[in-house]
Amino acid sequence: xxxxxxxxxxxxxxxxxxxxxxxxxxxxxxxxxxxxxxxxxxxxxxxxxxxxxxxxxxxxxxxxxxxxxxxxxxxxxxxxxxxxxxxxxxxxxxxxxxxxxxxxxxxxxxxxxxxxxxxxxxxxxxxxxxxxxxxxxxxxxxxxxxxxxxxxxxxxxxxxxxxxxxxxxxxxxxxxxxxxxxxxxxxxxxxxxxxxxxxxxxxxxxxxxxxxxxxxxxxxxxxxxxxxxxxxxxxxxxxxxxxxxxxxxxxxxxxxxxxxxxxxxxxxxxxx
Amino acid sequence: xxxxxxxxxxxxxxxxxxxxxxxxxxxxxxxxxxxxxxxxxxxxxxxxxxxxxxxxxxxxxxxxxxxxxxxxxxxxxxxxxxxxxxxxxxxxxxxxxxxxxxxxxxxxxxxxxxxxxxxxxxxxxxxxxxxxxxxxxxxxxxxxxxxxxxxxxxxxxxxxxxxxxxxxxxxxxxxxxxxxxxxxxx
Lengths: 272, 186
Description:
The complex is a heterodimer.
Chain A: H1 29-39, H2 49-65, H3 72-89, H4 94-100, H5 107-127, H6 143-153, E1 156-157, H7 160-173, H8 190-203, E2 207-208, H9 209-213, H10 219-234, E3 238-242, E4 249-253, H11 260-271
Antiparallel strand pairs in A: 1-3, 2-4, 3-4
Helix pairs in contact in A: 1-5, 2-3, 8-10, 8-11
Chain B: H1 3-13, H2 20-26, H3 32-49, E1 53-58, E2 61-66, H4 71-77, H5 87-99, E3 102-103, H6 104-111, H7 116-124, E4 128-133, E5 141-145, H8 147-152, H9 164-172
Antiparallel strand pairs in B: 1-2, 3-5, 4-5
Helix pairs in contact in B: 1-3, 5-7
């Protein structure tokens, strides 16, 4: 089979391998199948499995000859194709015939191909829109001004990723311990830490992420605190905010002041 | 002071799309209906003016955006990190956009390939976000598109996405007019 090189702009990852041969770069087995169907001008609703399977296997062979890594996904599809082919060859069981007469073994594959084609096209349609930062622009605030404005504006809602980032940067600041630690005498439980945070939040409205681990900067402490914060979030007892992009992270109680004592009781129960 | 001008000033100064709710909150001395009318009026005004920028409804709010036709000139001044999407990123994004909430397994079934890397990139670019966990064995994460997705792709909301039917029709549309066979003149 002939393989013409498709001009493929390497994008997002921008990987350029020194001696790579550029074949048609397919996004996956479905993409390859669609390509073969289009190239042979076949009817997608009535795929000649024998032809397609042969061409598909030829392509995989070629990939191997060129020392390209053949992803498992391609092999899985090859086996699916062979399976369909064998089912088409075998006569149906007498009993089965009545029930599954209309069930073509190709149905599922065709369905997947059609769906895949649709999303591939949808992706192209999305890409052809006038994109912000490419065709379309907004007025841009200069960065420092923007940051200042945001911190005045008050807290921003925070994504889980930001929290994980904050946690990671905190962990990076912990000095590496150079000695062996025999099992610590006292271990900190998440429940204790949760109670600590809650009682601190009773005294003050807002709590800073860094403050909670300042006195006791150990890996254990930071991890337990982080887990406690996540748990509190899950129980909807606190809310997490960030003051501006890359700003510090704050916690506030999710409930009104009066209810805090109630929360405390609730939490003690869960400690058991 | 005309309400339309008040709104224009607020939207102009804002650094992100401003929702109708937020405007009503700020302009509590005006009726919601009046604000709506003024917004529509303002939109028509900018449209009729055919200027360099338009009032656009995007990601559930209103924002001034330059018209795409002036892209070439705007980019002479503004340095853009060239936005480019690989086809795998686009496919994955399309699946997340149309099928959300969706799990990684579902995406991988539809694409027939591993999507871990692509999903991670989309998450980092904030086009996709984690909506939560699905209540099935293994509690897999479920993904959806973000506010930034709507902003970047200039969509009012998810309903603003072209329907898959429309996309299919686009694909099937004949490239030339069909004409009946002409009788051979003898």
